[in-house]
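Need residues for this backbone.
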């Protein structure tokens, strides 16, 4: 049967964060107490106003198909949120609601990537991005970045690595796994370099709401023709509701909506009705309090990691990840992560998940876990880090 598999199945890379979570679950089932600093899932869940809206929608029978691009009320609420919170006025007609940010990535790849097209990504970056490109027949090209560039692609990277086969770039700010944002001047230069080569920019803003050291501002302020991806999973804490969105240039709305109608029919209707309540004052106040809780966790962990000899090359300013350099303790992040899990009972993700450039000496820790557990995790790690 394996001979019948499509060639693309061999190009799909494993998602080690999920594998770490599966091993942690196996240990927990066997009676071990495991603290999760691995998978990027908030410990917070949808707040009461959102749950109440979901219940009302289901009781009213609003569980059928919606339009492929999503409920008009939700598209309007997302557009207003971008104007009010991210400094980027958006026509609601350019907002397409999707089945998670994964659905948005799939649609973006299918709409823009031809077989054989190269797409530039930074190394390190979110591993599944490569798989979405490969699913459309494209070729993901990881470009090594470093702390001096805050682990992002630069305009110089575009100039140095663009080839006749290159079609565009896929970037994120704040980033997974580093939690770092791209400065406006750097981002503007990168976008200009891509535009000069008639390429596209897919911009992942999934963690934009979780910015800590500056007001969040969308890349749409710099260029209105980007393909923006976002999600209800991180800032809005609705991971299992499978809801996201994309903001696209007007010329892409009709073709993407046409594909969405066939590939997904529509995003989950109960989730959409519930998500409208995310933008009410009561829910936004809750999300803001939770954002501050994430910032408190980051501010606890940074000096704690320093005390363990886990270096942080660039201070994260967003998301809920810290990308550490473990060189003082090991030159094999996979082995070190396995020891953390099995000896200390702390789950974290080895650097190989995010690209080869820093794989051996890097580990990503997630602080999407309550502060008391993080404090306990640090103490569990001390014997291993001596």
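Answer:
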């Amino acid at each position: 049967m394996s001979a019948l598999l499509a060639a693309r199945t061999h190009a799909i890379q494993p998602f080690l964060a999920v594998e770490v979570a599966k091993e942690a679950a196996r240990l927990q089932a066997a009676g071990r107490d495991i603290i999760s600093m691995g998978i990027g899932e908030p410990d917070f869940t949808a707040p009461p106003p959102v749950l109440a809206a979901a219940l009302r929608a289901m009781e009213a029978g609003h569980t059928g198909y919606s339009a492929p691009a999503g409920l008009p009320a939700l598209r309007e609420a997302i557009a207003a949120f971008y104007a009010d919170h991210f400094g980027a006025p958006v026509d609601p007609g350019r907002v397409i609601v999707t089945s998670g940010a994964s659905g948005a990535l799939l649609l973006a790849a299918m709409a823009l990537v031809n077989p054989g097209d190269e797409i530039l990504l930074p190394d390190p970056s979110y591993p599944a991005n490569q798989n979405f490109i490969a699913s459309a027949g494209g070729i993901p090209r990881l470009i090594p970045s470093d702390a001096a560039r805050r682990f992002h692609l630069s305009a110089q990277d575009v100039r140095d690595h663009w080839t006749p086969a290159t079609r565009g770039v896929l970037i994120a700010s704040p980033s997974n796994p580093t939690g770092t944002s791209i400065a406006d001047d750097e981002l503007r230069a990168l976008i200009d370099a891509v535009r000069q080569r008639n390429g596209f920019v897919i911009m992942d803003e999934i963690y934009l709401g979780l910015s800590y050291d500056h007001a969040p501002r969308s890349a749409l302020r710099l260029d209105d023709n980007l393909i923006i991806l976002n999600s209800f999973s991180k800032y809005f804490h609705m991971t299992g509701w499978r809801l996201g969105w994309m903001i696209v240039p007007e010329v892409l709305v009709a073709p993407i909506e046409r594909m969405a109608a066939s590939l997904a029919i529509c995003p989950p209707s109960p989730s959409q009705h519930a998500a409208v309540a995310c933008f009410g004052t009561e829910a936004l106040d809750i999300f803001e309090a939770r954002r501050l809780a994430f910032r408190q966790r980051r501010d606890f962990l940074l000096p704690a990691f320093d005390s363990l000899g886990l270096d942080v090359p660039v201070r994260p300013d967003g998301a809920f990840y810290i990308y550490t350099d473990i060189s003082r303790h090991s030159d094999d992040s996979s082995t070190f992560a396995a020891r953390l899990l099995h000896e200390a009972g702390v789950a974290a993700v080895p650097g190989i998940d995010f690209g080869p450039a820093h794989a051996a000496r890097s580990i990503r820790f997630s602080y999407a876990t309550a502060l008391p557990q993080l404090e306990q995790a640090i103490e569990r790690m001390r014997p291993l880090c001596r």
